[in-house]
């Protein structure tokens, strides 16, 4: 069956419980241009499927699809809230209020309290305003007052800012409700979510969003490279006549890729565990910051693949070598490793065979 917009979803939901449905992208089964009708398309798809050359799309189970639907719905609300914050901040600029130049978060506790005070009908008083400043604010009271002095909130800007603030609060309540429902539906995946949240830069919420996109069954992906390619974190293959054209990352992973990049940016800034920060700095010197962030995101997704596949905790093999470079790294030598090394050095195959037989007779 072709995936056409949202029209395939109700048909897929009905047939899913009765048979194995293969959903495919139209570009892989499109008939020849000029000879296309609905009946011919159906016959063409059926013939391709008979010869097992239909490339199936990844469709997760119903419970994961429910998580995916709600997580993407939450993302849309967060975009709407960010848009309202930008409108609110534009009105602040028009009204000659530059709190955002002094405070780190123009929508934090102190900034919100000051804006509520300015939007009220009470005449401005610096003594009353000073009571609203939180004790942990790094900026001095005088700097904050300088960013407010001379403000003039016009009636239309006051109306716009009050409604934008109400809308932001409403969107925040919607987002909280969606997150509560997401964690309720994801109880069967708590162990996997907890394991992924152990990676530097991840939280339980971001781990839940990753699970909602890739599922907790890694058997559908051939390898970690396949998963990274599906997420749009690998260079594209575009070569013709021995000439490589554009190798930019593909546009795949519309929801997963931005999430992993955001987690990668948080990981490279971590001071408690600088594992990814060290790798990022090494790559950024040679390849640039943007490519280094993509590389860190791909490392994270590769780690997630192996952690889910093998039920392992996050502990990279080169962790000690990266964090403690001066500390000697212990390497476990096995018979297979030794024989492989001797073979690479050009040892006689008959001698290696006798050595393997002798070690099998005399363990150790």
Task: Please tell me about this protein's structure.
The protein has 364 residues and is mostly helical. 59% of the residues lie in helices and 1% in strands. It contains 17 helices and 2 strands. It has helices at residues 8-16, 26-29, 38-50, 62-94, 109-119, 126-130, 141-146, 155-185, 190-196, 204-214, 224-230, 256-268, 275-287, 289-310, 319-323, 335-344, 349-361, and strands at 239-240, 243-244. The chain has a two-stranded antiparallel sheet with strand order 1-2. The model has no long low-confidence stretch (mean pLDDT 89).
The share of residues in helices is 55-70%
Question: What is the molecular shape?
Answer: extended
Distance between termini? 58 Å
List unreliable stretches of 5+ residues. Answer: none
Query: H/E order of the elements?
Result: HHHHHHHHHHHEEHHHHHH
Strand content range:
under 5%
Short description:
The protein is mostly helical. Helices cover 59% and strands 1% of the residues. It has a two-stranded antiparallel sheet with strand order 1-2.
Main features:
2 strands; 1% strand; two-stranded antiparallel ribbon; single chain; 59% helix; 364 residues; 17 helices
How do the strands and helices of this protein lay out in sequence?
Layout (H helix, E strand, L loop, with lengths): L7 H9 L9 H4 L8 H13 L11 H33 L14 H11 L6 H5 L10 H6 L8 H31 L4 H7 L7 H11 L9 H7 L8 E2 L2 E2 L11 H13 L6 H13 L1 H22 L8 H5 L11 H10 L4 H13 L3
Antiparallel strand pairs: 1-2
């Amino acid at each position: 069956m072709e995936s056409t917009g949202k029209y395939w979803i109700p048909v897929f939901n009905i047939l899913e419980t009765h048979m194995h449905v293969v959903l495919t992208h139209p570009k892989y089964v499109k008939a020849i241009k000029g000879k296309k009708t609905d009946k011919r398309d159906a016959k063409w798809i059926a013939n391709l499927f008979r010869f097992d050359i239909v490339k199936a799309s990844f469709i997760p189970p119903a419970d994961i699809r429910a998580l995916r639907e709600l997580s993407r719905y939450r993302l849309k609300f967060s975009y709407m809230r960010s848009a309202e914050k930008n409108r609110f901040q534009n009105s602040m600029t028009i009204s000659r209020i530059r709190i955002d130049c002094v405070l780190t978060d123009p929508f934090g506790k102190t900034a919100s309290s000051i804006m509520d005070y300015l939007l009220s009908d009470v005449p401005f008083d610096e003594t009353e305003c000073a009571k609203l400043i939180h004790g942990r604010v790094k900026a001095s009271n005088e700097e904050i007052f300088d960013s407010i002095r001379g403000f003039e909130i016009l009636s239309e800007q006051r109306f716009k800012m009050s409604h934008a603030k109400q809308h932001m609060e409403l969107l925040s309540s919607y987002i909280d409700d969606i997150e509560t429902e997401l964690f309720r539906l994801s109880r069967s995946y708590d162990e996997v979510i907890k394991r992924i949240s152990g990676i530097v830069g991840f939280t339980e919420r971001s781990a839940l969003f990753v699970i909602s996109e890739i599922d907790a069954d890694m058997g559908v992906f051939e390898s970690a490279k396949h998963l990274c390619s599906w997420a749009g974190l690998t260079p594209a293959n575009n070569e013709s006549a021995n000439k490589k054209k554009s190798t930019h990352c593909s546009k795949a992973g519309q929801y997963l890729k931005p999430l992993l990049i955001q987690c990668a940016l948080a990981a490279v800034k971590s001071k408690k565990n600088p594992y990814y920060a060290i790798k990022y700095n090494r790559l950024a010197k040679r390849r640039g910051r943007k490519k280094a962030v993509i590389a860190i995101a791909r490392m994270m997704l590769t780690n997630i693949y192996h952690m889910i596949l093998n039920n392992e905790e996050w502990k990279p093999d080169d962790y000690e070598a990266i964090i403690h470079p001066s500390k000697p790294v212990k390497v476990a030598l096995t018979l297979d490793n030794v024989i492989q090394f001797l073979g690479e050095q050009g040892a006689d195959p008959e001698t290696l065979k006798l050595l393997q037989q002798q070690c099998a007779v005399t363990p150790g």
